[in-house]
Specification:
Distance between the termini: 18 Å
Strand order of the largest sheet: 1-2
Number of strands: 2
Largest sheet: 2 strands, antiparallel
Number of domains: 1
Structural class: mainly alpha
Strand content: 5-15%
Helix content: 40-55%
Length: 65
């Protein structure tokens, strides 16, 4: 995902994924990725650890928690 500062939002990057299933449907890519993250981040019974490679995206999430 890329952080767009002008709109203060995240935009999915189809070219950045290695998952062939996600690359198939570029129209719904953004919705699929958002759903995957939502599911993974809400299923933890005792907590959830998230590691961000992109520090701008990490800051984006920290500001919203």
């Amino acid at each position: 995902m890329n952080l767009i500062k002008e709109n203060d939002c995240l935009i999915g990057n189809v070219e950045g994924t290695k998952d062939p299933m996600l690359k198939r449907n570029k129209i719904n890519f953004d919705n699929y990725v958002r759903n995957i993250y939502r599911v993974l981040m809400t299923r933890g019974l005792k907590g959830c650890y998230v590691y961000f490679v992109d520090k701008k995206v990490e800051k984006y999430f920290k500001l919203r928690m």
